[in-house]
Each structure stands twice: as structure tokens, then as C-alpha cells.
């Protein structure tokens, strides 16, 4: 079986990663939902951009900042405005 292209890494809670999970699920996009226990955070943190999670990995690239990742996921599942004004309203 081929692994999903996307890997989302976060703590085992909803919080900042949940909108990204919802968007991928809505669009039927498979992704690895990697949730690590808090006790491992001191080992993982030094390798995270800005020392933060969630991160989204795709083809060796790493994205960070949950709002930017949610906007990306929304674009992937065609949940975006039809013009810049609608995008502004969605962002607001």
C-alpha cells in the first residue's frame, strides 16, 4: 500500500491541526495524521520550524503555521472564494 503524500504532525488533540484535518477529510485527501505524545515534545521540538507544531509535509517539503496550512488545504479541496474580495471575507 502506498503511503499518503501528506503528513500532518501535531499533539493528540484537535486544536490548531483540526481545521486542516477537516479540510483534507472533506476533500477525500488521504493524509498521515501523526499525533505524538507530549512526553516526546522535547525531542521533536528542536527539529520543528520556529519550534512549533503543527507541520505539514509533502514530498520532502515542510510547511508550518496553521492558518497558512489551512488556506493551502482549502485551495486543494476547492473551498476558496471566486475573487479576492471573497477570499478576504473567508480569511476574516
What does this structure look like?
- The chain is α+β, with helices and mostly antiparallel strands and 92 residues long.
- It has helices at 18-26, 41-44, 66-76, 84-91, and strands spanning 6-10, 31-35, 55-58, 61-64.
- It has a single domain, classed as Glutaredoxin (3-Layer(aba) Sandwich), CATH 3.40.30.10.
- It has four helices and four strands, in the order βαβαββαα.
- β1 (6-10), α1 (18-26) and β2 form a beta-alpha-beta unit.
- α1 runs parallel beside α3.
Tally of DSSP helical segments: 4
The largest pleated sheet is described as: 4 strands, mixed
- Number of E-state strands: 4
CATH class: Alpha Beta
CATH-derived topology: Glutaredoxin
Tell me the Rg in angstroms.
14 Å
Number of domains: 1
* Major β-sheet strand ordering: 2-1-3-4
Helix content: 25-40%
Question: What proportion of the residues form beta strands (DSSP E)?
Answer: 15-25%
Kindly state the mean pLDDT as a whole number? 94
Keywords: Transferase
Organism: Asbolus verrucosus (Desert ironclad beetle)
EC number: 2.5.1.18
Enzyme class: transferase
